[in-house]
Specification:
The complex is a heterodimer. Chain A has seven helices and ten strands. By secondary structure, chain A is an alpha/beta fold. Chain A starts with 9 loop residues before the first strand and ends with a strand. The two termini of chain B are about 25 Å apart. Chain B has two domains: about 190 residues, no CATH class; about 140 residues, no CATH class. In chain B, the strands form two sheets. Chain B has a six-stranded mixed β-barrel, surrounded by four helices. In chain B, strands 11-12 form a two-stranded antiparallel sheet. Chain B contains 14 helices and twelve strands. The chains are: A alpha/beta, B alpha+beta. At the A-B interface, helix 2 and helix 3 of A face helix 1, helix 11 and helix 14 of B.
Chain lengths: ~230, ~400
């Protein structure tokens, strides 16, 4: 009899999460009682059409937005009642972000973009340099460290964004359509890189996508329709 | 990346816009420094002029400053020679000059005109006060040494009497005892004070002639000249309590013109500075407001990565302060060049109201003024950045990230 696989506690857990928006005079329910638990190290995709609520779900999981009902646990800690400053400080240390449009700071070099989360975390300079160099090496951009974002291709920029998300070894990485702007070959490379670096940094990925090239590489794919998670 | 380096890179993002803003800050800083420097020069000129005119400290009898004299020299100083000798023992006292104030009629035989005169040692006065009288004709000294008493006539008074150097005139005045006395004098020179109204009545003569005319051995006051105008408060604080029998009045209590001009200039240049500050503030606000709007998405990204609103605002404040620093440095350099260049250009200001002579347009440089203006410029730009970036930094992150 083989030993039972260790039960990994969820990094993030949503219980009955709801979110409403005011749209003119009407009230729109973006999330309707979402329950979701993502285990540590998992690579989970949230799939669904535009307007289904997947970005809203990711914003709440990434502590970028507040929830109207239910509870949100990150590493077992309740987040729903935390104020903006507390959420910011948690994001600073424990959550990485990868955006569809890369969102790199144009006046910062590749190195400085990757270094920024460590600078916010107030790490010593030597430690920051070590981590930035190692992460840039992992994403294959060590030779382009001094370039500015506009001197890079789309795939290279997304690799910088991945490096920036993972350099602080976060417990959770939120990726919103990370391959939407990339061609197939580059998208495949980016997904592979995310998986590989996620494993080496011990990060859990929660990805919003409607890209099948992306979902094919995920441990779990959940579908979102009209604010309800299937 | 160093936060200031990042701020500088952000300032350079839109070079033309930043350059215009820096230019406005530079022009504003230069304008404030040059205008304030001109005011400082004017204050200094008036201050020295006022102090030279009446003396750093005026010594007289107590009643002289408190009451009107019914007859000339009624409250004069009989012991002025002893007082002069005592005062000149103080090493800070450069010279003590006796003065006699007199008035009466001056006549050429055909015509008599009212005069306001001073009996003083003209050469010593000129040595202390500089060229306070412009010699138009003749000489400042006695026409014939050892000859008859001489006077200096104001230009307009001389014109009224048709008098020229060498002409004989008669001075008529009420004596200290209340009688009438007359003295024949010779015109040594025709002079101008620069004040048109004064030149219509002006007479200068020596102390002895004035005393002879008033039949008195007193003088009205003693003008005490010190090594430096800055010494006046200290010396006054020592002299006055030591001699309660006399009144000691500093120059600033007798310099109404200085105080009125200073008050006027303070208001004018204060208003000018305020207008410049408002212009710079709105210009920097406008530049940074545009930058904030353009960078809303970036602000959202940085907030998502864990930057607190205060850290975002601090970044924009650094950018505003950098614009202010560059503007202040450039403005200071240009103002410095103006200060250095003006003496060689030789520009003249027109005569102030009531005066007949202009004065050179010069600008003083003052370290406290330069420091204050530069710090104010940087603070102004930083404040503008703080105001425009606060709202953007507080914007919901999701909204900022979705900004197009």
């Amino acid at each position: 009899m083989s030993p039972a696989a260790p039960i990994r506690p969820p990094v993030i857990e949503l219980r009955g999460v709801s979110k409403h928006y005011r749209l003119g005079e009407s009230d729109v329910a973006a999330l309707k009682g979402i329950d979701l638990a993502v285990a540590a190290g998992a690579f989970v995709a949230i799939k669904g059409p535009s307007g289904s609520g997947k970005s809203t779900l990711l914003n709440i999981c990434g502590l970028l937005d507040s929830l109207d009902g239910g509870s949100l646990l990150l590493d077992g800690e309740e987040m729903a009642a935390r104020d903006e400053t507390a959420r910011t400080l948690i994001r600073r240390r424990r959550i990485g972000f990868i955006f569809q449009s890369y969102n790199l700071v144009p006046v910062m070099s590749v190195r400085d973009n990757v270094d920024y989360p460590l600078l916010l975390a107030d790490l010593p300079l030597a430690e920051r340099r070590r981590r930035v160099d190692a992460t840039l090496e992992q994403v294959g951009l060590a030779g382009l460290a001094d370039r500015l974002p506009d001197q890079l291709s789309g795939g290279q920029r997304q690799r910088v964004a991945i490096a920036r998300a993972l350099v602080k070894s976060p417990t959770l990485v939120i990726a919103d359509e990370p391959t939407a702007n990339l061609d197939t070959a580059t998208a495949t490379q980016v997904v592979d890189l995310m998986r590989q670096l996620g494993a080496s940094h011990g990060a859990t990925f929660l990805i919003a996508t409607h890209d099948d090239r992306m979902t094919a590489h995920c441990d779990q794919v959940r579908t979102m329709t009209d604010g309800v998670l299937q | 990346m160093n936060a200031l380096l990042m701020a500088w890179k952000n300032v350079r993002r839109n070079r033309r816009r930043s350059l215009v803003t820096i230019l406005i800050a530079t022009v504003g800083c230069t304008a404030v420094l040059v205008a304030s420097g001109f005011a400082l020069y004017t204050y200094e000129m008036l201050r020295e002029g006022a102090a030279r005119e009446v003396g750093h400290i005026t010594l007289a009898s107590k009643s002289y400053f408190e009451r009107d004299e019914e007859t000339p020299l009624q409250y004069g100083l009989p012991d002025y020679r002893e007082l002069t000798a005592k005062l000149t023992q103080d090493k800070r006292v450069r010279r003590v000059l006796p003065r006699v104030a007199l008035s009466g009629l001056v006549s050429n035989g055909d015509k008599s005109v009212i005069f306001l005169g001073t009996g003083a040692d003209i050469e010593a006065e000129a040595a202390e006060r500089g060229p306070f009288l412009q010699l138009k004709e003749g000489s400042l000294t006695r026409a014939t040494p050892g000859g008859p008493a001489s006077i200096l006539l104001g230009t307009d008074l001389a014109r009224s009497l048709g008098a020229h150097p060498g002409a004989g005139l008669t001075l008529l005045a009420t004596t200290t005892a209340g009688g009438i006395n007359a003295v024949d004098v010779v015109v040594a020179g025709i002079v101008s004070t620069g004040w048109a109204e004064l030149d219509k009545r002006l007479i200068y003569t020596d102390v002895e002639t004035a005393q002879h005319l008033l039949v008195s051995d007193r003088v009205s006051s003693l003008a005490v000249y010190l090594d430096s105008t800055d010494l006046a408060p200290t010396v006054l604080a020592e002299l006055a309590p030591a001699d309660p029998a006399h009144a000691y009045k500093p120059w600033w209590e007798q310099a109404a013109y200085y105080h009125s001009v200073r008050g006027l200039y303070n208001r004018i240049f204060g208003l000018l500075g305020l207008i410049i500050a408002v212009l710079v503030f709105f210009s920097v606000s406008n530049t940074l407001a545009m930058a904030v709007v353009e960078r809303t998405r970036e602000i959202g990204t940085l907030r998502a990565l864990g930057a607190l609103p205060g850290e975002i605002v601090a970044q924009f404040v650094r950018e505003g302060a950098l614009i202010g620093i560059v503007g202040a440095v450039a403005g200071t350099l240009i103002a410095g060049l103006v200060v250095l260049a003006l003496p060689y250009v030789g520009l003249q200001m027109p005569p102030p109201p009531g005066r007949s002579e202009g004065y050179p347009l010069l600008v003083n440089a003052s370290l406290p003024l330069y420091l204050f203006t530069s710090i104010a410029m940087v603070a102004l730009c930083a404040a503008a950045a703080w105001i425009v970036s606060r709202k953007a930094a507080q914007k919901p992150i999701v909204e900022a990230l979705g900004h197009v």
